[in-house]
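REVIEWER CHECKLIST
Item 1: Sequence provided? yes
Item 2: Single chain? yes
Item 3: Sequence as submitted:
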Amino acid sequence: MKFKNYLLCGAAVLALAACSPQTGGGNSQGTDQATGSASQSSLADMEIHIPYEKFVLDNGLTVIVHEDRKAPIVAVNVWYHVGSKDEPAGKTGFAHLFEHLMFNGSENFDGELFVPLEKVGGKDLNGTTWFDRTNYYETVPTPALEMALWLESDRMGHLLGAVTQEKLDNQIGVVQNEKRQGDAQPFGKMEYPQLEGLFPPGHPYRHSTIGSMEDLSGASLEDVHAWFKKYYGAANTVVVLSGDVDAATARPLVEKYFGDIPAGPALSKTKSWVPVKSSNQIEEMTDDVPNLRISRTWTVPNRTDKRAYLLRLAAEVLGGGKNSRLYQALVYQSQLASDVSVHLQPFELTSLFEIEVNLKDPDAREKAEQILNETVEKFLAEGATAEEISRAQTVITASTIRGLERIGGGGSKAVTLAQGELYAGDPAFISKVINWTNTATASDVNEQAREWLTNGYYQLTVLPAQSYTTVASSVDRSAGPPMPTTMPELTFPAVEEATLSNGMKVVLANRTTVPIVEMALQFDAGYAADAGQKPGTAKFALAMMDEGTTNRSALEIAAEAESLGAGISSSSNLDVSRLHLNALKPNLDQSLDLFADVVRNPAFDAEEMERLRQRWIVSIDQEKSSLMQAALRLMPTALYDEGHPYHMAYQGSGTKESITNLTREDITAFYSNWLRPDNATVMIAGDITMAEAIPALEKAFGSWTAPATPKPEKDVDALSSPAGGRIILVDQPNSPSTMIMGAQLLSSTGADDAMLIDMASDIYGGEFTSRLNMNIREDKGWSYYAYASALDARGQRMWINYSPIQVDKTRDGFLEMRKELENYVRATPASEAELQKMKETRTNSLPGAFETSGAVLGNMLGNERFGRPYDHVTTLKSRYEALTVGDVRTAASESLKPENMVWLLVGDLSKIEADIRGLGIGTVEVWDKDGNRLR
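Item 4: Structure as written out by the authors:
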């Protein structure tokens, strides 16, 4: 069961970050060390800890400070110990609705809180609501820390006077559209019966965090006041500051801004409620989804209980990768399923152990359930082996290390410290989790699995009150938030270049933050290489690369990678194809040996190809069932001329027909023609020097020679001139929303005018506070989001503006989006204030944009793709600052052509077609999801 963790902005994310261990830490009295069991890697010698200082203000506010000086940025996290489990009957969804209201301004800053944060280049600006907590977070340049604390404290202590009926009504509409959007996603409605099946009446988890439409509509201002006064007190809150800050600096600032905020009333909290089922409960539901899914869930001990983390190891053995028991049985051997996952979701009152199986053929249900039952029964009878447990521990430890590189965001140090304090009263609680995980034996794991997984499952398948005081505030809040007067400069690692003996170019940036090496081989190929071939060939070929070599089977590759804590992956976009290695430095030589085998010796085994083909076809169906993905599949065929390399599904996945007819010869031909050393660049970022890299690369790739045949060419520079004024309708029966997407073609991402055009686009629709989203979401409340973006390409690139509009507002939403664009280009062009805000957002975010080695590598790969110098990012600030509002207005009027826009609407035709045709605008066509015109 993948419950939805509701966010203020962007799509809901899966609440699984807490299922991966996050590093523990300690205060000045000591450090914590995670010790793993014996494995093929040297991870047992690695120390993992998060130093921190903790203090509690007189009003009960708990503050945790972690110092990390690698970048001039600070992550600010504010966690309130309240979530949807605290909602009374008839008020479901209120915790999440209140979270939305917290972004609409406070008594001393009556505006969108995103505005000043975007202005200083803040990132990770958001808030989320979950069963047990509500959190708000942002990562800002160090000089903006005081401003962020002012904003967070103002809405925490000075909110209610700014909440109006108009704001409440607007956000009710936004949240209801968020619910519609989530329900419209494949399997989006599973959560409701699952919660009722798992939790008895009266259990706080029985209803979803998003709540019901009726309860949301009934929310009142009185509810807002009561909720704020009860739960948003200082004593119910944890503040974490992580990054370029220390406790000596932080404490006076926190006392200054938060010290006058009342503690709030004493609260009674349930700490554990595991509703164990005595028998199995099996239910069915019917919905508009692309495949049959079996979800089987047990309730198990909560997130502060050691037993939960032993069960997480069991989940990894059962369904954590290609070598897991259920993947082997259902995907690899029987080939009945396209995907299997087993995971443990930890919560405050109980945790959930879930097996999820996606079948390729609904008729295979009986056989699949038989295999599922037999595999679980055999696992419980025989138990996991020591080797399986060791591999699971390595996978989890490697995931932990990777999460530690970030100070903020999912799985980061800020989140880890906050969760430990909020749920366990111990910021270093993660050290216990790591110890429990890495000292577990197979016997420990098997004992807990037999105790808990033999219970019934659901298939859809008091503390004395403390006395607090406040301090007099010295803050003049009428002056507004204290904006920083200076901002840090970008620090980007030096980029070196070298050449291997076989002519392969090597580009390297040294970053020593954590012992990780990120490496990518970038080939001049991509989806455009499919031109004249079967669509989907490039992406399919890359996906086959780790499905076996002439020396190792697919399962051996997966097992060896897991034992090394390495990650090998592949990807393509329109222009390039990549093979990627993420390695722990102590295991780099062995990891690189494995990676080179994958790159140089793919077997393209026919049997493996058939397994992937079946899963691939299911994934195409899944793309077609998603409003956004369906639109992206079709829009390029309307914009690019037939025969153009970009005239295909934007995802590059091909069609059912092309994938069905794809042969091994097609794949091997693609590999021979395109994935060759004279068509590749080795890009590296991380804890490695060029002197260390060259010998290792020579050993791995030095003897790899190019074939005698010349490199193929792609004509991505061919120009297309799509006919404008077209409206294309695509049926998505019963959809509660309509994806409205308007698009046209612009010059290349690498063109001289790209930055200017992008700035014009961003002012219109590139940020939460840009014109389009503020109109469609914040003013009208018709959608959860509305954005515009130019999609990267070497040739002409697509510019899209899009929004999933509630179905009954399709006509109005379509007209409003057209009008907003027309006004921006002509009547009300970009203003000096809009340009200045966007310039500040772009330049001030640069210093914190390259915190991780992966981010550095991503920038290098983009520069290589578009022929830009490797120090391109260091020139951006001066180039942004040189832009004038006249330049932007000219770019918008010359590049964005409302009259030439192609509009594509994916929604329920029975509810939208007559209204759209009745407008009498342009040519209205009806297409099927494969791009065939029906009328």
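Item 5: Key structural point noted by reviewer: The domain at 495-701 is CATH 3.30.830.10 (Cytochrome Bc1 Complex; Chain A, domain 1).
Item 6: Recommendation: ____
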